[in-house]
Amino acid sequence: MPPRKIAVLAFDHISPFHLSVPCLVFENRAGQPEHELWICAAESAPAGGLRTTAGFTVQTSLTLADAVQADVLIVPSWRDPDECPPAAMLDAVRAARARGATVVGLCLGAFVLAEAGILDGHEAATHWSAVEKFSRRYPHVKLRPDVLYQDADEGRLVTSAGTAAGLDCCLHLLRRWHGADVANLVARRLVAAPHRQGGQAQYIEQPLHDAPGGDRLSDLLNWVAAHPSEPHTLDSLAGRAAMSRRNFTRRFRDLTGTTVGQWLLGQRLAYAQRLLETTHQSVETVAQQAGFGSAASLRQHFSQAYRTSPSAYRALFARV
């Protein structure tokens, strides 16, 4: 069942942006699922409230005792990777994990989860600027330094890279709990990309507007996303972009942070999700329209990506 109670930890000198990201995604608005969104103080507040890095304060009557009762506990960041989080905060993270809650560490929040010991043996992500420090301090965590966000323990442990990747991660959770249609609705409201794959690179070394062919490739990607049923291949896409195979492959990775095959699979899976949610078309027809060729191929890729079948997904998220 989708979670109802979502707790977000606030602490002294928190970044307002990091605190606002889960609030924007999970707040109650018309057409969105209803959540009980709790902002919980992770430590005692100075007089006037918890201070933010922007100079204003945040006040809440909720505490760590409330946070550990939530279905989802989100640590939206941490103020300093060199500072050990308070013992009470670490105990709350451990208690939430022991209760079976989903525990999420956005950006440097992954340091809090790791310090609590709940990431040992699991894959995790954090902000690219802190990966060396993270790796040295937590050698038992399988850090994936380049990804936007990372699921572990069947989605019960989730970590992300910094800033905008936290938004991607929260939209990813919304998509998992309530389906692609709801996540797309929220993404449109936020004017954000509806779905960026977690394995996508955190940043691109060369600015795209200065890269030859950047606009041409962006137009191509938009066209491919609108025509998933076409039999796209590396050679056909390179030809459409008027590039050599080698140059196209290199520029495609620069633009997307992933390979042609991985990106195309993600687009087709996302399109299949929308068709399953919003139409009565058979799984075979969905497979054809999404470019998988057969229902068997769709089922295989769908199961690998989402650990469920297209039919089971439709039964849970269908809106028709």
Tell me the strand order in the biggest sheet. Answer: 2-1-5-6-10-9
Give the overall average pLDDT: 88
The percentage of residues in β strands lies in 5-15%
Biggest sheet overview: 6 strands, mixed
CA(first)-CA(last) distance: 20 Å
CA-based gyration radius: 21 Å
Find the count of extended strands (DSSP E, 2+ residues).
Answer: 10
H/E element order: EHEEEHEHEHEHEEEHHHHHHHHH
Structural class per helix/strand content?
Answer: alpha/beta
Low-confidence stretches: 198-214
Tally of contiguous helical segments: 14
Name the shape in a single word: globular
Helix content: 40-55%
Brief write-up:
With 320 residues, the protein is an alpha/beta fold.
Task: For this entry, give a set of tags.
alpha/beta; 320 residues; two-stranded antiparallel ribbon; six-stranded mixed β-sheet
Structure description:
Mean pLDDT is 88; it is low at 198-214. Helix 1 (16-26) runs parallel beside helix 6 (164-178), helix 9 (234-240) packs across helix 10 and helix 11 crosses helix 14 (310-317). Helix content is 46%, strand content 11%. It has helices spanning 16-26, 64-67, 87-99, 109-115, 131-137, 164-178, 180-190, 214-226, 234-240, 245-256, 260-278, 283-289, 295-306, 310-317; strands at 5-10, 36-41, 50-51, 57-58, 72-75, 102-105, 123-124, 142-143, 149-152, 157-160. It is globular. The strands form three sheets. A six-stranded mixed β-sheet has the order 2-1-5-6-10-9, sandwiched between helices. A two-stranded antiparallel ribbon has the order 3-4. It is built from 14 helices and ten strands.
